[in-house]
Amino acid sequence: MIDDGEEAWADFERTRADAREQMREERRRAEKRERAKAQQETRKEARREREPQTEAAMAQTAAQKRKKTSRLDIAPIIMPTRQEYEATKRQLDYREGYIHFAVAGTSGSGKSSLINAFRGLHNGSDDPTVASTGVTETTERITRYADPNEARPFVWYDVPGAGTLSVPDWKYFNNQGLYIFDAIIVLMDARFTAIDIAILQNCARFKIPSYIVRSKSLTHIENVSRDMRRTKHSEVHYEHARDKYMMETRKNVSANLRKAGLPPQAVYMVDTETILDITEGTDPEKVIDEMQLVEDILLEARNRRVDMALALTV
After folding, report:
1. Cα–Cα–Cα angle for 158, 162, 163, rounded to 5 degrees
2. CA angle, 291 as apex, 289 and 293 as ends, to 5°?
């Protein structure tokens, strides 16, 4: 049996042991702080010793970047001079009294097919003025196509696709002379890309009207419908797939414009066969935004002609 004295001693021993452990813990913490402080001083000293070497390394890296930039022929986009502007107009045969449309975008987006449709021409026809089409990029240089309908004073330009080895994205707008055009169609296919944004930003800078157009829409809608059938395991109406496709496209374009700091802008979802039907005066079976796009382009032409007439009276 343990008496009160022994129990008190045991309590004291436990208390003293706890105190010793607490002192040891505080000592460990103090030693850890001292080691950390010493390591910090060591690192500072090492950094001070390395600073000249680091500055030299940074200078070498910058020189390497400049060399690489020069090798890739990268230069800032600058506003063209008056002489360059006039020279580009002569080179691309810009004529007063006409409305000049450039159709630009990534390679394979269907620029040539769209131009043919606007002009009432079928791809692959024997007409010598038809724009060449193909799976790969077929436009090597910017090509001028007059509209065969004299009631529409349009001239269409098929611009080489951006992103090819011969047309780097960053200098696409200026190198192609897009700053001379009266309006620019930015044609997208499967997705909205950085080059689309770059073209729209330059359109805003040069105050050129622009149209965002998504091509091959009937094919895209069929793809959406197929995916919906696989998910729902049932038949999907065309209208449901079309509405889903249009909603997703508008959401994607809106998000990209907002991210780039550009104002909201309409996106026209079209199929070239439908535009061809409209141009030929045939009632198309399925219409998405084709009629609206044609009407807006004709409105742009009327406004342009009014501006020209007013300019002549001044």
Report:
1. 150
2. 65
Mean pLDDT by 10 residues, the chain (314 residues): 48 48 63 74 64 53 50 54 90 92 84 90 73 59 86 87 57 86 90 83 88 92 86 77 93 91 93 92 90 89 66 54
pTM of the model: 0.69
- Give me the numbers of helices (H) and strands (E) for the chain, helices first please: 9, 6
**Cα–Cα distance list, 212 to 31, 74, 266, 270 (Å):** 67, 27, 7, 11
φ, ψ (nearest 5 deg) of residue 214:
-105, 125
> DSSP characters for 228-248?
HHHHHSS---HHHHHHHHHHH
Secondary structure percentages of the chain, helix, strand, coil, to 5: 55, 10, 30
Predicted pLDDT of residue 75: 40
Three-state DSSP at 7 gives helix
- What domains does the chain contain, in order, with CATH numbers? 99-313 (3.40.50.300)
* Long-range contacts, 218-221 (Cβ 8 Å, 24+): 218/271, 218/273, 218/274, 218/286, 218/288, 219/271, 220/190, 220/245, 221/245
Q: Are 106 and 192 in contact (CB under 8 A)?
A: no
Amino acid code (one letter) for 57: A
